[in-house]
From TrEMBL:
Gene3D superfamilies named in the record: von Willebrand factor, type A domain
Protein name: VWA domain-containing protein
Cited PANTHER family: LEUCINE ZIPPER PROTEIN 4 (PTHR22550:SF5), SPORE GERMINATION PROTEIN (PTHR22550)
Transmembrane segments: 15-32, 63-80, 301-321
Keyword annotations: Cell membrane, Membrane, Transmembrane, Transmembrane helix
InterPro entries: Aerotolerance_reg_N (IPR024163), UPF0353/GerABKA_families (IPR050768), VWF_A (IPR002035), vWFA_dom_sf (IPR036465)
Species: Ammonicoccus fulvus
High-level lineage: Bacteria, Bacillati, Actinomycetota, Actinomycetes, Propionibacteriales
Keyword Glycosyltransferase: no
Boundaries of every VWFA domain copy: 94-284
Parts forming coiled coils: none
Stored PROSITE patterns: VWFA
């Protein structure tokens, strides 16, 4: 049974009919309270009534009933065997890191410069991935290249990042194609029943496509292959570089990168500082490191029911206890 909103689905939804007892119990409680108040009217001397019957805290009584009802609701939900989509760690995946090494990456609007920060954060991102993941490295310039094929050897990827030098031009669409080629070289399933590991491309760039096919075409190819692109626009609008004695502006084309992410059904991120880029990589790590799976959540609901039951019992004890005045 599937219910809308935040409420979970249930394997035994008919058991939820026991929740109809909750409004009945509420009505009984209200009725009992009114009957008690009617009996109290017989006492005209309220001073004598206070001496005979010790006054109890009204809010503690109401709280006891409320906690008892919440416990009943949670335990009934647990009995109906709830399940929900939860994030679970992926066992396997292949991640292609596409790193922009075009000349615009020498801009110093991000201190000390875009390239240094991008390298450092890319290395930290690679280190943060689960050790069983295969990682490949592709460089983005006028002539994109596969620096490292998919491998679990993190040192090879890190070494490849550290030793990259700046090159001319920016071919975003072509770099996506090379990234897809890298994914094709990932280890294949060993058994007939084993599915291929999911793949994703993490693309960091700061520039405009100046060479080769447009980024939109590369993104369309990625979508056809079922590969999501997590695009990062790195830098500020005020970035610039000095080339051949001439100052050239180097703003980030956010619209282009957003389209690439949307076409591939991936996600787009903006990062203008070192800390922002660090957070972006952490968010991407959470996205590619987990997948949604159906899991039974009976234990969680039973735990809430037990917790509410214990609190209800403590509230009932507080009603019976004689507190010093």
């Amino acid at each position: 049974m599937s219910l809308p909103g935040w409420f979970p689905d249930f394997s035994e939804p008919m058991r939820l009919l026991w929740l109809l007892a909750v409004p009945v119990l509420v009505l009984l409680y209200v009725w009992a309270r009114r009957q008690r108040n009617k009996r109290g009217i017989r006492f005209t001397n309220t001073g004598m009534l206070g001496a005979v019957v010790r006054q109890q805290s009204q809010w503690r009584r109401h709280l006891t009933v409320l906690l008892s009802l919440l416990s009943l609701i949670a335990l009934t939900a647990a009995w109906a065997k709830p399940y929900a989509q939860v994030e679970v760690p992926r066992e396997r995946a292949t991640i292609v890191v596409v790193l922009d090494i075009s000349q615009s990456m020498q801009a110093t609007d991000v201190r000390p410069d875009r390239m240094t920060v991008a390298k450092n954060q890319a290395i930290d991102f690679v280190k943060s991935l689960p050790p069983q993941y295969n990682v490949a490295l592709v460089t983005l310039s006028g002539a994109p290249a596969m620096v490292a094929r998919p491998t679990t050897d993190r040192s090879a990827i890190i070494r490849g990042i550290e030793t990259r030098n700046l090159q001319d031009s920016t071919a975003i669409g072509e770099s996506i194609v090379v990234g897809l080629q890298a994914l094709d070289q990932a280890p294949k399933p060993k058994g007939a029943d084993e599915e291929a590991a999911p793949g994703a491309i993490v693309l960091l760039t700061d520039g405009e496509n100046t060479n080769g096919r447009p980024g939109d075409q590369g993104a369309a190819l990625a979508k056809a292959a079922g590969v999501k692109i997590y695009a990062i626009g790195f830098g500020t609008e005020n970035g610039y570089v000095d080339l051949d004695g001439k100052r050239e502006p180097a703003p980030v084309n956010h619209d282009q990168l957003r389209r690439i992410a949307e076409i591939s059904e991936g996600e787009y991120f903006r990062a203008a500082t070192n800390d922002q880029l660090k957070k972006v990589y952490a968010d991407i790590g959470s996205s590619v490191g987990y997948e949604l799976a159906h899991r039974e959540t009976t234990a969680a609901w039973a735990g809430w029911g037990l917790g509410f039951g214990v609190l209800a019992a403590l509230a009932a004890i507080s009603l019976a206890a004689r507190w010093p005045s």
